[in-house]
Amino acid sequence: MASYDFLIIGAGIVGAAIGYRLAAQGRVAILEMEAQPGYHATGRSTATFVETYGGRAAHLLTTASRPFLEDPPVDFSDTPLLTPRGNLRFARPGQQAQLEQMLAACGPRIPDLEIVSQQAALALCPCLRPGLVDSALYEPRAADMDVHAIHQGYLRGARAQGAEIYLQTPLEHIEGTGGDNPRGRQGGRNWLIRTKDQMIEADWLINAAGAWADDIARLTGVQPVGIVPKRRTVVTITPPADMMTDRWPLVRDAEESFYFKPFAGNLLVTPADETPFPPCDAQPEELEIALALERMKAATGISAPRLSSRWAGLRSFTPDERPAIGQASDHPHFFWAAGLGGYGIQTSPAIGMITAWLLAGTPLPAASEAELISLIPEITPARFS
Ligand SMILES: Cc1cc2nc3c(=O)[nH]c(=O)nc-3n(C[C@H](O)[C@H](O)[C@H](O)COP(=O)(O)OP(=O)(O)OC[C@H]3O[C@@H](n4cnc5c(N)ncnc54)[C@H](O)[C@@H]3O)c2cc1C
Known about the structure:
Elements: E1 2-9, H1 13-22, E2 28-31, E3 48-49, H2 56-70, E4 82-84, E5 87-91, H3 96-106, E6 114-117, H4 118-124, E7 135-139, E8 143-145, H5 147-160, E9 164-166, E10 173-177, E11 191-194, E12 199-207, H6 213-220, E13 228-237, E14 250-253, E15 259-263, E16 266-270, E17 275-276, H7 286-300, E18 307-317, E19 324-327, E20 334-338, H8 348-360, H9 366-379
Parallel strand pairs: 1-2, 1-12, 2-9, 5-14, 12-20
Antiparallel strand pairs: 3-8, 4-8, 5-7, 6-7, 10-11, 11-12, 13-16, 13-17, 13-18, 14-15, 15-16, 19-20
Bound molecules: flavin-adenine dinucleotide (FAD).
Residues 9-15, 31-34, 37-42, 44-48, 170-171, 208-212, 216, 232, 234, 313-315, 340-346 line the site of flavin-adenine dinucleotide.
């Protein structure tokens, strides 16, 4: 029988970030069903850090995560986690009001965020068709993330503090619950789990299973919060030989019907699709690939006779598209860390910090403490009960 204070289900970026923080506070185990952590959402992202992305919860969590990603502990990674790449969100004629709303919502938090003219937008990304662009919101301190380095930094750091990571070990069976839980067995810790190899007991079960988070809740008798995984498709194409693309920003339209950015010598393009899909090993569909290429061509004239690569992944949302972070309202030792949509990587430092604060009382950084605490009512899973 292995015995832990915290048993985390899922070694994607969310489970890894939480394991990294909690390992200093108690005995931690992470169960991961795949051989490779991050095989699903985390390993399939487009790796951007954008502080204007999503709603208020995403904004505050992302900004609170920036100091860690900019300046991680010395032994966390050999390479920088963030590399500057501005974010250019362009408005078509008649859409300027959308940019002004975004500037009003995010401007006070983000230095240098500004609305730029058509001329300035085309100087940043000369391939855009001039007739398409009225003006643009430019976020110069957006960045590319090294997702692999961030993820491995968390996992390595968790292990170094004594956490155990069980790969190819799905949570499939709950043997019992106990401790002060009135439903379960008496004595011992609160959760008793049978894996393929052994029995594990733990005080807390932390649900970081991404697209499978509602399945974990059902398995444990906890009320699901209504997670909806949505498939997103990505292609990479070779840019025209006469275009110097490396310094282009990440470019998207105001309504986010597509976006593109330079990516390892190619251009990464997505039609920003959001197709509800059951939890699975998501694969790209021809229709979405065709849409990505069509929207890219319409906006820039760039066409791609063949793809360099293609993939798809699942972004998982709660019904109100805010994350579910916190204790379940119907179980005293079940903790949700799910529904991170399209921003789970850029917010992962803050998710780890909030979880360690809620579960172990680890102090939050002074600079973001008030804002993170103000978010708790917006992200508590209790709002769905
Ligand atoms: C195309 C695309 C682009 C994206 N772009 C960005 C971006 O630019 N920036 C950003 O911040 N975010 C981005 N995201 C979102 C980001 O990838 C997710 O928010 C984040 O990876 C979610 O992390 P997670 O740990 O919750 O999920 P996952 O990475 O899916 O991890 C959950 C883990 O739980 C495991 N698991 C499930 N069930 C069980 C079980 N029963 N037992 C054991 N283990 C189990 C799974 O195998 C998986 O490894 C993007 C996502 C996609 C698909």
